[in-house]
Structure formats: C-alpha cells, structure tokens
Amino acid sequence: MKKVELLAPAGDLEKAKIAILYGANAVYVGGKKFSLRARASNFDMDDIGELTRFAKENQAKVYVTMNIVPHDEDLDGLDSYLRGLAKASVDAIIVSSPYIIEKAKQHAPELEIHLSTQQSALNSEAVRFWLEEGVSRVVLGREALIPEIAQIIETTKADVEVFIHGGMCVSYSGRCMLSNHMTTRDANRGGCAHSCRWNYDLYEEKRKRNRFGHFNIGSKDLMAIDYVPELISIGVSSLKIEGRMKSAYYIAGVVRTYRNLIDEYYEKNGAMDFSDLSKYHDEIKKTENRMFGTGFLSGEAGISSMLYDQRAEQPTKEFLGIVLDYDETSGTALIEQRNYFETNDTVEFFGPKLPNTKIKIPEMNDLEGAVVTVARHPKQLLKIKTPIQLRPYDMLRLVERSDKDLIL
C-alpha cells in the first residue's frame, strides 16, 4: 500500500531540515522570486541545492512554490529560474499561473507541476482541465468538503493534495483584496498583511455592537487530527501543513504529531480507535497559540469556524531550546537557548526519535565551564547533563517553573 505523503512548510534552511528530520516526506519552500510568502526568509539557489541534497539523503522531496499571480514586471528571469530549479534537482513546483505552467513545460520538463490552491480547484471538471494542461497534482481549494474530495479522486484518479493544518483565508485562498486596499500589499504577490486578523470596531448605523472587545473577521486555524484517517481512506495523496512563516518549534511539533498519527494508522491497517485521538490533540496544543477549527472538513463552515470577538491567541508550552550536540561519554548536551529558563525548572525533551521525557534542569555550565543558574541570553550556548540520551535537533519546552523567585 502506498502511504500518504506528509508535506511540511519551511521558511528557511534550518526549518526545512527540521521538518524532514521530524517526519515530513516532503517540504515546500519559496525562492527569492515568484513565491507568495515574500516576508519569509526564503531560499536562494544555493540554499535550494543544499536542501535537495539533504532531502535525498533522507528519502524526502522538495517542492518550490511559484504560486504568485504575476504582473508583467514579475516575469523577468522566469525561464532561467525554472532551468535553475531543474538543475538543483527540485522535485516539483507549485504553480497558479497558466503562463508559468507553459514555461515550465518548455524550459524544465523534468519538474513535476503541482497546481496551487490559489486556483481554487473544487470540482472534477476543473481538476480534469488542469491535468490535461500538464499538471501532475492538484492542491484542492480549502473549501472542498470531504465527500467532494472523495468524488474528485474517484472520478478523475488525480493525485490530490489537501490542507490539514494551519492558517485559513477568510476569502477563497488568495482572492481577498483587503490587504491590497488597506495597505497596498498584494496578497496574490506575496504581501498579504492579514487584515482579517486586525482588531476592528463593528457599528450598526451609529451604534457600536462590539461592546466587550474588538471585532475581527479572521477564521480559526485549521486542525484536522480527527479527519486524517478518513482523508487517507478516500485516497488523498498528500496531507499538507501550512506555515512557512512559523517557527522551527512549531514545524517540529506539528510535523511530529501528524507523522505519529499517520504511522499509527498504517501500523493498525486503519483499524485504530478514531473516537479517541486525544493524545494527538494534546500534542498539537503544545505547539500552537491560535484557536482551532475544522474548516470545511466537518461540513460547510459556519460561525463556529470564525474568530469574530473571540481571542485569537491562547497560551502555549514555551519553547526553551534546541540540542546542538550530545557527548555520550559525559552524558552532556550542548543546548542553544531560545527562551528564558533556569535550574530546577521542569522541562520536556522531545525529538524525532525521542518520546516526551520530563526532567528537572540540573546544573548548567557555559562553554568555559562556569556555573549558570539562569539562561537569559538569546541563543546562549549551554552544557547540561541529562539522564537521557539526546540527539542534535531534539528540543526542550517548559512544563513547570521552579519554585524559587525568578532572577531578572
């Protein structure tokens, strides 16, 4: 049985490598041009080459987003860029423009072409059209219901990709003009200002209706833990996580959670207890600080899928640091600090091969051997003895602050 692909986002090279190590079968990244996340760090051609080599060493694939809706001024260098991606051994490009599709077929025929969700393909006839145009995979619009997804796969036999986690667009993906009108930042050219998540006052004539807080029109983030088994069973080829602007900690935690869920599904031949996926819900909650919804996967989206006057963020487990190295002889880990912590704090280590493991932080030392009681400096390097064996790219997060007063 061919396993479903888990596809993860990455805004830079470190995040891409972490996504692969934590279980992604493929990653999608943006180049310096033609991509819709202009404010991500994004990849130059050398970075893309390094990533494709790393991916192949780890049996993973690399897709490059070229999903911009281009104006004439955006097309300079397109042909050479496509040839460069092919030379770098990129597996596929994600495209919304018919012109870029035609150019890709001419100048880089070895690249697979995946149709971006920006095209809002939501029916079998649209999918057939794009397959005839040379597209090998269709990323369906986020507005597709599960029965519709099943019908599309059954009638077209298409390689279909579906979003399972991350931010949702308040309009059809990429078709919202709020950012263009309010900030002159074009959502279809990589500049969305996420105006739907701003705080507004809502008036009916002259009467203010949001009496108890601000009003916004953003949607809750998608979280499809409960629907992954069904999406696999109907033949979805790729399950996609959104979030090229997200942190390395977010990428690691989300990818690891869905990886474990997908693996359990196949280990049990689909005969798992779908009524209790609470352990996966609990893990996801440690990585995200926005409210979740199920989008259109649970049926037509309604009020419950929107934020309106609800809080857009929730507290999360705090990401404290990442393991750079581990000395088995001394049992000492080299940690790069990412947030404040101190000795005697209870933390949880986790990693691609490490189950959640709680310990109290023992004595810490800096690189010169001096005792450190408080890790307060960004990216400070610390040596910590641990009772567990760690590996590079394992991470730690806060569980409980020590009883003593914080040293500020």
Concise structural overview:
The chain is α/β, with parallel strands linked by helices and 408 residues long.
Please characterize this protein's 3D structure:
This protein has 408 residues and is of the alpha/beta class. It has two domains: 5-191 and 217-305, Alpha-Beta Barrel (TIM Barrel); 319-400, Elongation Factor Tu (Ef-tu), domain 3. It has ten helices and 22 strands. The protein has an eight-stranded parallel beta barrel with strand order 1-2-3-4-5-6-7-11, surrounded by five helices. An eight-stranded antiparallel sheet has the order 17-16-22-13-14-21-18-19, with no helix packed on it. Helix 1 runs parallel beside helix 2 (45-57), helix 1 (13-21) packs parallel to helix 9 (248-267) and helix 3 packs across helix 4 (98-107). The longest helix has 20 residues, at 248-267. The chain is globular and about 65 Å long. 38% of the residues are buried. The model has no long low-confidence stretch (mean pLDDT 89).
